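Below is our example:

___
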Amino acid sequence: MRAALPQAGQDAGDGDLRGAGGLAGGGAVGANIGLGQAKGGIAAFAAEYAQATQDPRAVQILQDYRKKIRRAQHNIETGGGAAQLGGLVGFTGLTGGVKTLLMAGRTLNEEAFVSTALSLAELLCSVPVDSITACDFYGGAAGLLYLLCTAPKLRAMPNHPQRTEALCQRLLALQTLDTKQGIRTWDTLGKQRPISGLGHGIAGVGLALAAAWRLYPSEELYAAMRDAFLLEGQLYHDAMGTWPDFRDSSVPSGAMNGYCSGAPGMGAVYLRLHQLGITEFDGDMEKAIRSVTAAPLMSRDHCCCGNGATVEFLLDAGRALNRPELTETAKERLTAMVQRKAAKGQFTFLPADYENYSPFGLLNGIGGLGHLLLKAQGLAAGSLFFEKSCNKMASCVY
């Protein structure tokens, strides 16, 4: 018997969940123009910094980024159109570019950025849904669906209910994996087993369906969303005290501690559900908080699978739940990262030869660290970081 549905049909939020708890995504078409990789990640940090300072250098980065987006969109439209974009609809594709442009438009109060964002969103919404084979948040339909349902400018697009319904039905059609737990779910990475987590796993799909259900309530959507989180609850490993990383092994022998996989991403999703009025899984949110709080400082500092994810989740949870001890833990951890950077001379990211890696991006590079410093330590820390990184960031975007 299913639990009673909470009240539905209300506004799904302001679209500021950047990768669930923070900033996430990437880029594939147009040389990393999505939100989390090089150009998009730097532009997102520049948008936040420009909002606080109106620094003309940050504004120029955003102007250059918009030119890159428009050029990439032109190349798509003249080289095959939306039919080729079925694998690029998540935050690691062009949806991240839409998000970044909306951030820039809000920051600069310039309609040109919003217009470009809406044009790119229209292109993504014209992708034949049957060509979308990826369902996860980072790389598939869940990312686009979530942004469509949470960004006010996108919710005002023509035929929004029909476009949302088409993506929802595509996600439901992609439930092809029958698990030993007795729940039909998504094979998010083609591993023939359920993968836990926000970025690449079941939780990210469940979050997108929750955002859609909040706008357009239906028992079908709620049932699929709830099953996703019931399964995530079963994947939690009591002895490990976290959600195992099943990407490389079906045996729960190891775990990430990031947005891609692990407790920070899971906690960010559960926190968002709580904010949407879905409180059935608050107990799992507390598990995530305990796991992240107990975790030691890691060797890597970035936001995808490093200390950045733990800092941002604790910071967001502390503020949203009025729990100052979580906010304080987040700031202490960030201070430890900064102190270690001062001793070593640099923050630690992924190895330079890592696939699709950019040291400038929001997920895996300096864009994400600038975002965290500005968010947690204020304008002085963000300004210092921007001053030291400005030339590198500008040359990367240009």
Remarks:
- Confidence is low (pLDDT under 50) at residues 1-31.
- The first helix runs from residue 38 to 53.
